[in-house]
Specification:
heterodimer; A: alpha+beta; Outer Surface Protein A, domain 3; three-stranded antiparallel sheet; B: alpha+beta; five-stranded mixed sheet; 10 helices; 16 strands; globular
């Protein structure tokens, strides 16, 4: 159902992370983008998406599946917004389209 | 040999000639000037600093001089030169000594990349350092000045250097910049303290520099283990209060005061995050200097 709300081309586009350094603390997750030299504090959902994509490149549906395995299906309302989170991660330069 | 070993005439002569080389923390400064206020300030505030021989390599070549224009005589100005360049517009000649101090800060954070530099004061007790980052007007320098008169060692008032290789805080131990009411507060709190002449109408109001304690200068090559990171805030009315800060919140808040973090790349990120991992971080509000120092002392006792 979630995939129905996403544009067809967006669903199939695969994403990968750029080179990043992580730091997780109780009150926030930091990532350092080695390409741009910028540091970001991520919200938990963005961090989970980024981690999902860090394992290996994935499209939004595949990333969603990985996150769902982790946090469970009860977060469906939040997960429906995944496209916005992915767009934000791309805007921050933390992910990029992958040909894999 | 120390700067205070020179007679006033010899100090003036050396500064006006090829320059005086002295050590401040890990750096060697070569200073040339014939401006009386700078000569006098150096004599009062840097007396305990080691004087180095002429052949010693200098990290920073600095000169303060009058311009070769009418501004030499009419409302005279001073030019700060660093390694032959003049990175700042001239300032009124009356501000020559503060210009030297702020200019040297700028030269350090523009050129030094083997340390993470945090815009913060730092003091040490029992081998452990408390780092005090705070925006101007927060009471950071006043608190630092109070602490160093009650048993804490001065590491720095403005630029905290954290070694990329050892993760230790490396001292600079330069004079403390007191502003406006803080000058009288410290004079009353520590009557034996040595404060150089006031300089009025600077960008920060009236400024006067406090001489660093001899012991802090003598131990300026002795690094400390970072232990606490405390954001001080002076409040004229209110009780002393403090609260623990989260690590990510500390990082975000510290970002504004990181002088060369972006230049250091991933090494800076890795150092800073592992540094914050090992620090206890607090927000701290005080209205009474004595109470504030007692709170700092309890930190050490409870450690």
């Amino acid at each position: 159902m979630i995939s129905n709300s996403l544009a067809h081309s967006e669903v199939h586009r695969r994403w990968r992370t750029v080179e990043i350094h992580w730091k997780e603390w109780d009150d926030g997750i930091l990532v350092y983008n080695a390409s741009s030299g910028s540091t970001h504090v991520l919200n938990p959902i963005s961090a989970k998406i980024l981690k999902a994509l860090a394992k290996y490149p994935a499209n939004i549906i595949e990333a969603l599946e990985r996150i769902t395995q982790d946090i469970g299906p009860s977060d469906g309302e939040v997960l429906a917004s995944i496209e916005k989170f992915v767009a934000n991660l791309e805007e921050l330069g933390l992910i990029e389209p992958s040909s894999e | 040999m120390k700067i205070s070993d020179l007679t006033p005439a010899r100090l003036r002569e050396r500064l006006a000639g090829d320059g005086l080389k002295f050590q401040t923390g890990p750096f060697v400064v070569r200073l040339q000037t014939s401006l009386a206020t700078v000569v006098e300030g150096l004599g009062i505030l840097y007396g305990e600093f080691p004087l180095l021989p002429d052949e010693e390599f200098a990290d920073f070549h600095i000169s303060l001089r009058l311009p070769r224009t009418l501004r030499r005589w009419i409302r005279p100005q001073v030019i700060y030169s660093y390694n032959g360049e003049s990175p700042f517009p001239p300032l009124p000649c009356t501000q020559a000594f503060p210009f030297f101090e702020t200019g040297l800060n700028w030269s350090i954070y523009s050129e030094v990349f083997n340390y993470l530099i945090i815009h913060a004061a730092a003091v040490e007790r029992g081998g452990h350092a408390a780092i005090l980052p705070a925006p101007p007007g927060s009471g950071k320098s006043t608190l630092t000045a109070g602490l160093i008169h009650r048993g804490w060692r001065l590491l720095t008032d403005e630029l905290t250097l954290v070694s990329l290789s050892t993760k230790r805080v490396v001292p600079l131990a330069r004079p403390i910049s007191l502003k406006n009411q803080a000058i009288d507060i410290i004079q009353q709190f520590a009557p034996s303290s040595v404060i150089a002449a006031k300089c009025c109408n600077t960008a920060k109001g009236t400024v006067a520099y406090l001489r660093p304690p001899a012991e802090s200068v003598a131990r300026m090559l002795e690094p400390s283990i970072p232990r606490w990171l405390i954001y001080p805030q002076f409040s004229s009315n209110g009780d002393l209060s403090f609260s623990a800060l989260g690590k990510a919140a500390t990082f975000s808040r510290l970002a504004d005061g990181l002088v060369n973090y972006t230049v250091l790349g991933s090494a800076g990120f890795d150092l800073l995050t592992s540094l914050i991992d090992e620090l206890d971080c607090y927000e701290f509000t005080y209205s009474d200097l004595g109470e504030a120092i007692a709170w700092f002392d309890r930190l050490v006792e409870c450690d």
